[in-house]
From TrEMBL:
This is UPF0235 protein NJ959_07995. Gene3D superfamilies: YggU-like. PANTHER family: UPF0235 PROTEIN C15ORF40 (PTHR13420). InterPro entries: DUF167, YggU-like_sf. Belongs to the UPF0235 family. GO terms for cellular component: cytoplasm. Coiled coil: none annotated. It comes from Limnofasciculus baicalensis BBK-W-15. The lineage of its organism: Bacteria, Bacillati, Cyanobacteriota, Cyanophyceae, Coleofasciculales. It comes from the Bacteria. Pfam families: DUF167. HAMAP family: UPF0235.
Length: 74
C-alpha cells in the first residue's frame, strides 16, 4: 500500500489525520534532525497500520516534509 504523507515535526502531540485527498498528515514531537522525525514517523505508522516497523519504507522525501511511504501489509 502506498501513502502520501505530510510531516509536521516539533508538534506538541503526536497524531495522524487524513485529508480529503487521502494524504496522511502526521504531527510528530521530534525535530527533523539526525533522522529522529523519520524514525518517529515509522514507529507511529507501524502502530497505526499494525505492521512491523521493517515493513514501512520511505520511498521518497527522506529530508522533506512531503514523503511517499510504502507499507507492506503481506
Amino acid at each position: 500500500m502506498k501513502k502520501q504523507v505530510k510531516v509536521k515535526p516539533n508538534s506538541k502531540q503526536q497524531k495522524i489525520e487524513e485529508s480529503e485527498d487521502g494524504t496522511l498528515i502526521v504531527h510528530l514531537k521530534s525535530p527533523p534532525v539526525d533522522g529522529k522525525a523519520n524514525k518517529e514517523l515509522i514507529d507511529l505508522l507501524a502502530k497505526r497500520f499494525n505492521v512491523p516497523k521493517s515493513k514501512i519504507i520511505i520511498k521518497s522525501g527522506l529530508s522533506s516534509k512531503n514523503k511517499a511511504i510504502e507499507i507492506d501489509t503481506n
